[in-house]
Amino acid sequence: MSDGGLFDVPDAAEQERMVEAVLFASAKPLSVGELQARLPHGCDAAAALSRLAELYAGRGVEVRKLGDAWAIRTAPDLSHLMMREVVETRKLSRAATETLAIVAYHQPVTRAEIEEIRGVSVSKGIVEQLMELDWIRLGRRRDTPGRPVTFVVTRTFMDHFGLASPRDLPGLAELRAAGLLEGTPPPEAETRPATLFAAADEE
Fold it and tell me: Model pTM greater than 0.90?
Protein backbone atom coordinates (compact mmCIF):
# COMPACT_ATOMS: atom_id res chain seq x y z
CA MET A 1 0.00 0.00 0.00
CA SER A 2 1.22 3.49 -0.80
CA ASP A 3 2.44 5.56 2.17
CA GLY A 4 3.48 8.61 0.17
CA GLY A 5 7.09 7.48 -0.01
CA LEU A 6 9.60 8.52 -2.64
CA PHE A 7 9.43 5.21 -4.53
CA ASP A 8 5.68 4.64 -4.64
CA VAL A 9 4.46 2.88 -7.80
CA PRO A 10 2.20 5.20 -9.86
CA ASP A 11 -1.44 4.13 -9.93
CA ALA A 12 -2.94 2.50 -13.04
CA ALA A 13 -4.28 5.77 -14.45
CA GLU A 14 -0.89 7.45 -14.15
CA GLN A 15 0.85 4.48 -15.78
CA GLU A 16 -1.55 4.76 -18.70
CA ARG A 17 -0.72 8.47 -19.03
CA MET A 18 3.00 7.69 -19.04
CA VAL A 19 2.72 4.99 -21.70
CA GLU A 20 0.43 7.21 -23.77
CA ALA A 21 2.93 10.07 -23.63
CA VAL A 22 5.88 7.89 -24.62
CA LEU A 23 4.00 6.30 -27.53
CA PHE A 24 2.81 9.69 -28.76
CA ALA A 25 6.31 11.17 -28.73
CA SER A 26 8.10 8.15 -30.21
CA ALA A 27 9.07 8.25 -33.89
CA LYS A 28 8.84 4.47 -34.08
CA PRO A 29 6.76 1.66 -32.56
CA LEU A 30 7.99 0.48 -29.16
CA SER A 31 8.01 -2.99 -27.67
CA VAL A 32 6.63 -3.74 -24.21
CA GLY A 33 10.21 -4.13 -22.99
CA GLU A 34 11.22 -0.72 -24.35
CA LEU A 35 8.23 0.90 -22.69
CA GLN A 36 8.83 -0.97 -19.44
CA ALA A 37 12.41 0.33 -19.33
CA ARG A 38 11.16 3.93 -19.43
CA LEU A 39 8.58 3.57 -16.66
CA PRO A 40 9.25 3.78 -12.91
CA HIS A 41 10.07 0.52 -11.14
CA GLY A 42 7.00 -1.55 -10.42
CA CYS A 43 4.90 -0.33 -13.35
CA ASP A 44 3.19 -2.76 -15.71
CA ALA A 45 3.57 -1.52 -19.28
CA ALA A 46 1.68 -4.51 -20.76
CA ALA A 47 -1.38 -3.88 -18.59
CA ALA A 48 -1.30 -0.16 -19.37
CA LEU A 49 -1.13 -0.90 -23.10
CA SER A 50 -4.08 -3.25 -22.88
CA ARG A 51 -6.18 -0.64 -21.11
CA LEU A 52 -5.14 2.09 -23.57
CA ALA A 53 -6.00 -0.13 -26.54
CA GLU A 54 -9.52 -0.54 -25.14
CA LEU A 55 -9.81 3.16 -24.35
CA TYR A 56 -8.80 4.22 -27.87
CA ALA A 57 -10.83 1.56 -29.71
CA GLY A 58 -13.15 3.17 -32.22
CA ARG A 59 -11.59 6.63 -31.95
CA GLY A 60 -9.78 8.64 -34.63
CA VAL A 61 -6.44 7.29 -33.43
CA GLU A 62 -5.84 3.88 -31.93
CA VAL A 63 -3.20 2.19 -29.79
CA ARG A 64 -2.26 -0.69 -32.07
CA LYS A 65 0.04 -3.68 -31.89
CA LEU A 66 2.41 -3.89 -34.86
CA GLY A 67 4.32 -7.14 -34.78
CA ASP A 68 6.06 -7.17 -31.39
CA ALA A 69 5.67 -3.44 -30.85
CA TRP A 70 2.99 -0.83 -30.13
CA ALA A 71 2.23 2.58 -31.60
CA ILE A 72 -0.46 5.24 -31.83
CA ARG A 73 -1.83 5.19 -35.35
CA THR A 74 -4.70 6.67 -37.34
CA ALA A 75 -7.81 4.48 -37.41
CA PRO A 76 -7.70 2.39 -40.62
CA ASP A 77 -11.04 3.71 -41.90
CA LEU A 78 -9.75 7.30 -41.66
CA SER A 79 -6.36 6.74 -43.25
CA HIS A 80 -7.59 8.20 -46.58
CA LEU A 81 -7.76 11.60 -44.90
CA MET A 82 -3.99 11.50 -44.36
CA MET A 83 -2.94 10.29 -47.80
CA ARG A 84 -1.52 13.62 -48.92
CA GLU A 85 0.62 13.86 -45.78
CA VAL A 86 1.87 10.30 -45.37
CA VAL A 87 2.19 8.64 -48.78
CA GLU A 88 5.80 8.12 -49.80
CA THR A 89 6.08 6.32 -53.12
CA ARG A 90 8.86 3.77 -53.18
CA LYS A 91 9.44 2.60 -56.74
CA LEU A 92 11.25 -0.70 -56.70
CA SER A 93 12.43 -2.75 -59.61
CA ARG A 94 10.43 -5.88 -60.38
CA ALA A 95 13.31 -8.01 -59.09
CA ALA A 96 13.37 -6.08 -55.80
CA THR A 97 9.59 -6.28 -55.48
CA GLU A 98 9.60 -10.04 -56.03
CA THR A 99 12.43 -10.48 -53.53
CA LEU A 100 10.59 -8.39 -50.92
CA ALA A 101 7.36 -10.30 -51.47
CA ILE A 102 9.09 -13.68 -51.14
CA VAL A 103 10.78 -12.62 -47.90
CA ALA A 104 7.45 -11.36 -46.54
CA TYR A 105 5.51 -14.54 -47.29
CA HIS A 106 8.26 -17.10 -46.63
CA GLN A 107 10.27 -15.60 -43.77
CA PRO A 108 12.66 -16.57 -42.41
CA VAL A 109 14.16 -17.35 -45.81
CA THR A 110 17.74 -17.68 -47.06
CA ARG A 111 19.16 -16.16 -50.24
CA ALA A 112 19.36 -19.64 -51.80
CA GLU A 113 15.67 -20.24 -51.04
CA ILE A 114 14.74 -16.86 -52.56
CA GLU A 115 16.68 -17.77 -55.70
CA GLU A 116 15.01 -21.19 -55.85
CA ILE A 117 11.55 -19.60 -55.70
CA ARG A 118 12.34 -16.84 -58.21
CA GLY A 119 14.28 -19.14 -60.51
CA VAL A 120 17.09 -16.60 -60.92
CA SER A 121 19.95 -15.35 -58.78
CA VAL A 122 19.45 -12.47 -56.35
CA SER A 123 22.02 -9.73 -56.73
CA LYS A 124 23.73 -8.27 -53.70
CA GLY A 125 22.49 -4.84 -54.77
CA ILE A 126 18.83 -5.84 -54.44
CA VAL A 127 19.28 -7.15 -50.92
CA GLU A 128 21.27 -4.06 -49.93
CA GLN A 129 18.58 -1.77 -51.37
CA LEU A 130 15.83 -3.48 -49.39
CA MET A 131 17.91 -3.34 -46.22
CA GLU A 132 18.73 0.35 -46.76
CA LEU A 133 15.01 1.07 -47.12
CA ASP A 134 14.52 -0.85 -43.86
CA TRP A 135 12.07 -3.24 -45.50
CA ILE A 136 14.06 -6.40 -44.62
CA ARG A 137 16.74 -7.31 -42.09
CA LEU A 138 18.94 -10.26 -41.21
CA GLY A 139 17.28 -13.02 -39.22
CA ARG A 140 18.78 -15.98 -37.40
CA ARG A 141 21.29 -18.23 -39.11
CA ARG A 142 19.81 -21.47 -40.41
CA ASP A 143 21.01 -24.56 -38.57
CA THR A 144 22.22 -26.24 -41.76
CA PRO A 145 25.68 -26.71 -43.32
CA GLY A 146 27.32 -23.34 -43.79
CA ARG A 147 24.82 -21.75 -41.37
CA PRO A 148 23.39 -19.35 -43.98
CA VAL A 149 21.75 -16.16 -42.76
CA THR A 150 18.02 -15.71 -43.21
CA PHE A 151 16.01 -12.61 -44.07
CA VAL A 152 12.80 -11.36 -42.48
CA VAL A 153 10.69 -8.23 -42.93
CA THR A 154 11.25 -5.37 -40.50
CA ARG A 155 9.09 -3.55 -38.01
CA THR A 156 9.11 -0.64 -40.48
CA PHE A 157 7.54 -2.90 -43.13
CA MET A 158 4.90 -4.05 -40.64
CA ASP A 159 4.19 -0.50 -39.53
CA HIS A 160 3.95 0.79 -43.12
CA PHE A 161 1.18 -1.67 -43.92
CA GLY A 162 -0.42 -1.55 -40.46
CA LEU A 163 0.19 -5.24 -39.86
CA ALA A 164 -0.14 -6.84 -36.44
CA SER A 165 1.55 -10.02 -37.68
CA PRO A 166 2.79 -11.59 -40.93
CA ARG A 167 -0.58 -13.35 -41.20
CA ASP A 168 -2.06 -9.94 -42.06
CA LEU A 169 0.15 -9.40 -45.11
CA PRO A 170 -1.33 -7.17 -47.81
CA GLY A 171 -2.71 -8.36 -51.10
CA LEU A 172 -1.91 -7.11 -54.58
CA ALA A 173 -4.11 -4.00 -54.32
CA GLU A 174 -2.44 -2.80 -51.12
CA LEU A 175 1.05 -3.33 -52.52
CA ARG A 176 0.16 -1.33 -55.62
CA ALA A 177 -1.42 1.46 -53.54
CA ALA A 178 1.85 1.75 -51.60
CA GLY A 179 3.74 2.25 -54.87
CA LEU A 180 5.47 -1.12 -54.74
CA LEU A 181 3.93 -2.57 -57.88
CA GLU A 182 4.25 0.15 -60.49
CA GLY A 183 3.25 -1.03 -63.95
CA THR A 184 1.81 -4.40 -62.91
CA PRO A 185 -1.48 -5.76 -64.29
CA PRO A 186 -4.78 -4.95 -62.52
CA PRO A 187 -5.51 -7.06 -59.42
CA GLU A 188 -7.53 -10.21 -59.94
CA ALA A 189 -9.93 -11.77 -57.45
CA GLU A 190 -7.17 -13.38 -55.39
CA THR A 191 -6.37 -11.79 -52.04
CA ARG A 192 -2.67 -12.65 -52.31
CA PRO A 193 -0.35 -11.25 -54.99
CA ALA A 194 -0.58 -14.37 -57.09
CA THR A 195 1.51 -12.96 -59.93
CA LEU A 196 4.45 -12.75 -57.57
CA PHE A 197 3.92 -16.11 -55.92
CA ALA A 198 3.06 -18.43 -58.76
CA ALA A 199 6.40 -20.18 -58.33
CA ALA A 200 6.16 -20.24 -54.54
CA ASP A 201 2.66 -21.74 -54.58
CA GLU A 202 3.91 -24.69 -56.61
CA GLU A 203 6.08 -25.88 -53.71
Answer: no
